[in-house]
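Justification of computing resources. Each target in the renewal requires a structure prediction run like the one illustrated here; the chain below, 134 residues long, is used simply to show the kind of job we budget for.
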Amino acid sequence: MTSLRTLTLAALCALAATSISHAADTTAAQQLAHWSAQAGSPGNADKGKVFFTTRHGGEWSCASCHGTPPTAQGKHASTGKSIAPLAPAFNPKAFTDTAKVDKWFRRNCNDVLSRECTAVEKADVLAYLNALKP
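Resulting structure tokens:
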């Protein structure tokens, strides 16, 4: 019986640890603070909106897939895959996982700009997205 209790307790601990590892580790506001600190200045929502909707010499802008404003479900421009709303007020999971934030900024900036976004650009876009309210 003791061995069954030990095994059950170990299984519950493992399940709890797994659940914790998938929990949100950041917020959109914390991401904005992080990138503003990296940029050396606060994000500017007006500049972020312009950045978000501009094509930057390429075929796509951020808005091409995420919509303008990015408060509803979007659709990837080439694959047609649906994308959850990007604005945190319309998607509570947006910008809550640091690894995913870094991954998607890297991919999407490369798609739109053919390069990584700067800290200033990330801060401005996050300021814009955080300013969108229902």
